[in-house]
Amino acid sequence: xxxxxxxxxxxxxxxxxxxxxxxxxxxxxxxxxxxxxxxxxxxxxxxxxxxxxxxxxxxxxxxxxxxxxxxxxxxxxxxxxxxxxxxxxxxxxxxxxxxxxxxxxxxxxxxxxxxxxxxxxxxxxxxxxxxxxxxxxxxxxxxxxxxxxxxxxxxxxxxxxxxxxxxxxxxxxxxxxxxxxxxxxxxxxxxxxxxxxxxxxxxxxxxxxxxxxxxxxxxxxxxxx
Length: 225
What we know:
single chain; 225 residues; mainly alpha; 9 helices; 3 strands; globular; disordered N terminus
């Protein structure tokens, strides 16, 4: 017996694949230097090639992925100049979101942020890069969502799509423990409703990561040379 239901709209499936791929980029599951094919993603998501191809097209247009060959993509190379540009813009945009979050975050949401800081600390102790990156993304985006600005949230997501895959490279640089200390400062500032301090702590977190990443990228280029 056939169920009397409407078929899933094509655009719904395409959006689903697009959002799942975007999540893989934001959490560092697709790493710099890794090639991803249409077929491999289609098989992993159990969908046809078409929605994957469309998702690739959208993410390439957003500079989150770059075409390696006709049927594969990867994370775009990050130049030092591009890193600096992203750092400056992130400080302004994410700093503003943190400042607004300090004014607007409900106190009932603080335990979730506290839990994420604790989970990142545990991930650092366990040398669990994947868990740290997932919690790091969740922490930052929970803060930014509290700013209650869809415009800011969209801008921040686009910036993260371009830089967050490179956070994988920072696990041996000492950045993760330093970053989580900044997370604790962000949390403390938000709990006090201190927007200026929240903004400053976000800027320190972004600055520290950019400095370490600049060093790592410089070392990689020197080795390649």
